[in-house]
Design goal:
Helix content: over 70%
Largest sheet: none
Order of helices and strands: HHHHHHHHHHHHHH
Structural class: mainly alpha
Length: 396
């Protein structure tokens, strides 16, 4: 896979971007917590700045990604992200920490234009049999930074401070832009898009998603998966304290074990990607994760919970890789940005709904029933995939 110039270049770019994002996010988190004396309302604004652009700009960014040339879009977004960090660094001298949130908001918004463009390059320059391996490599990269990112970000901030953290972020964003400039020039595509109205293109993408049975089925699976993840995400601390009787600091070890297992799972998927259909990979990931989720909710053994976290982490990449591969294989290149921009908010929206209702469910039902509901939702997601086991001519 690394012999493919596009895969290799985008992967290096993503390493630099992930490094910069984690350093920036943890520096901002620790800095805001410090200057506001751990005010939960202000700290929550960080998450708003990170996730709000997904709802606002995902479909907009996806539509523009379909109109614009992908390499130029990615390079431009990285340069603009670097400039936003530089402006934040200069504005920080005024003493207002709110500019940090503005910088995060701008960078997160730009990523909604850049990410669909990267998928478009994969679609155009990676053979169909290698797409799943490419998605597995991306998932492995995310898993690596889930483990290393918090440690690197915290270390740089605690030892060197906010300004150095932002300078390092600026350098990594610039580095990503420079790496991407080594790609060949974008292929000249039809200019028809420039003569059509933006809103009509966006609505055409939504209609395309709705009329494609495979994508419609994936949207339903994405929705229940997001809801399942959301209702248990805030409860991990209660698993640590109530079920295991551990101190709340023990949660970081569970998260690190899960992240490391995700990395291993992503590597294993790369080895079997050519032999396993993405819909089977997705179904297996959902079912195993469902069983692990229910067992974690019931477990009062620290050793058993760690083992379940390992199993869940190893199979979780099956879900992400399966969904991303199926989206790319079932979407025409001209609609890839808009389809991704429409499906991603479905997952995030249901996840936010789940997170919002999590506390109420826990108080009304106790811990295990909530994890059981999450497991049932994941099984439902696997059941929704049954139409995709039909011949391709019947699916689309």
């Amino acid at each position: 896979m690394l012999s493919n110039r596009y895969v290799r270049t985008i992967l290096i770019s993503r390493v630099l971007l992930q490094l910069g994002i984690w350093i920036r996010n943890f520096a901002i988190l620790l800095y805001v917590a410090e200057v506001t004396q751990n005010n939960p309302q202000y700290i929550s604004l960080i998450s708003v700045a990170e996730y709000a652009p997904i709802f606002v700009f995902a479909i907009i960014g996806g539509t523009f990604a379909d109109r614009w040339q992908p390499k130029r879009t990615m390079v431009g977004c990285d340069w603009l992200s670097a400039v936003s960090i530089l402006l934040v660094l200069l504005a920080l001298h005024s003493g207002s920490w709110l500019v940090l949130l503005i910088g995060t908001l701008v960078s997160a918004s730009l990523s909604q234009f850049s990410q669909p463009s990267a998928m478009k390059l994969y679609k155009n320059h990676v053979s169909a049999e290698h797409l799943q391996s490419a998605m597995a490599m991306n998932q492995s990269l995310i898993a690596i930074f889930m483990v290393l990112g918090p440690m690197i970000g915290t270390f740089i901030y605690l030892h060197y401070g906010m300004q150095v953290s932002l300078i390092v972020t600026f350098v990594t964003f610039c580095g990503s832009a420079l790496v991407l400039t080594s790609l060949p020039r974008d292929q000249q595509e039809s200019q028809a898009a420039s003569h059509t109205h933006f809103m009509s293109e966006m609505m055409a993408g939504i209609r395309y998603l709705w009329t494609n049975q495979a994508l419609r089925t994936l949207s339903a699976t994405f929705a229940v998966t997001g809801l399942a993840a959301g209702i248990i995400q805030p409860l991990a601390l209660f698993i640590t304290v109530e079920n295991l009787g551990q101190d709340k600091q023990f949660l970081q070890w569970l998260l690190m074990v899960n992240g490391a297992a995700m990395l291993v799972g992503g590597i294993l998927i790369m080895g079997i990607a050519k032999k396993v259909k993405p819909q089977l990979l997705l179904a297996v990931g959902l079912l195993v994760t469902a069983c692990s989720t229910v067992a974690i909710g019931a477990s009062h053994s620290t050793v058993l919970t760690i083992l379940l976290q390992i199993i869940s982490g190893m199979f979780y990449p099956c879900i992400q890789v399966g969904i991303q591969t199926m989206i790319m294989k079932n979407t025409e290149g001209a609609f890839l940005g808009r389809v991704g921009g429409a499906i991603t908010p479905i997952f995030m929206g249901m996840m936010v709904i789940g997170m919002s209702s999590s506390g109420y469910l826990k108080n009304g039902l106790t811990l295990f029933p909530v994890y059981l509901i999450s497991g049932i939702l994941l099984v439902m997601g696997a059941v929704f995939l049954s139409p995709l086991r039909q011949p391709k001519s019947q699916v689309n």
